[in-house]
Amino acid sequence: MSSTVRVGKCAGAGLAVLFFLLASGVASQAYAADAGEEELASELTVLLRSARLVISDNQAAINDPGKGDKGLAPDKVLSQARENYKKAAGKPLSNAAAGSLQARSQKAMLESIGEVMAKNQALINETGKAYKGFLPAVFARQVAESFSAKMAGEIVVKLTAPKELIRNRTNRPDEWEHSVFVQQFKRADYVKGKPYFQTVGSTFRYMIPEYYGATCLQCHGEPKGEKDISGGLKEGAKLGDLGGALSLSIPTKK
Fold it and tell me: How far is CA 217 from each of CA 99, 161, 212, 237, rounded to the nearest angstrom?
């Protein structure tokens, strides 16, 4: 059975947030998830979106060719991400028990956000260049990859999208993710903003769908087929259309 969790305000890059379902042949049944896993998945996805929102809110500054220091040092972004998280979740980031999976995953996510920002400072602050390619989606993908590497298989976070919307092949949905997009998120009666979670074999899986916001349409909107600022072809999307999802996996201990 799927169930809803509190979802924070969608972080920019234009996407709003939500998730997925089972596929016949992929999993035999959807189960109510352990509360700890559900809460942890919600916390991590809201935190990642909260950091991504900082990048979205500062896209104009990032792409300003006449401005040097954009004021997006790692500590500044982390501070604002925590503020965004507090607004989205209705409470500060929790103080997890030392050594727990929650504490280690919080640390890994915050470190990944800071490290991605540190790595991209020269690009972000470059003068004489407008479009830099440091988009909210690029930031989120780099953070997700860094986080997953730090967690060494304990938790994996991935950005994905319906197959027809994939631009970066590393984001291609797996069989289960594809089934959730098709059987759940694309249904006319699916509740927007509702995450879907399920235990598949020995892995807890959680997806939260994301929808195109106004800023996303600059690259993904109309007219379909026109080149966007990055050189990609616009998909012809409209405000509020399903654009992708954040996918999280946690191997369960039996």
Answer: 42, 16, 7, 7
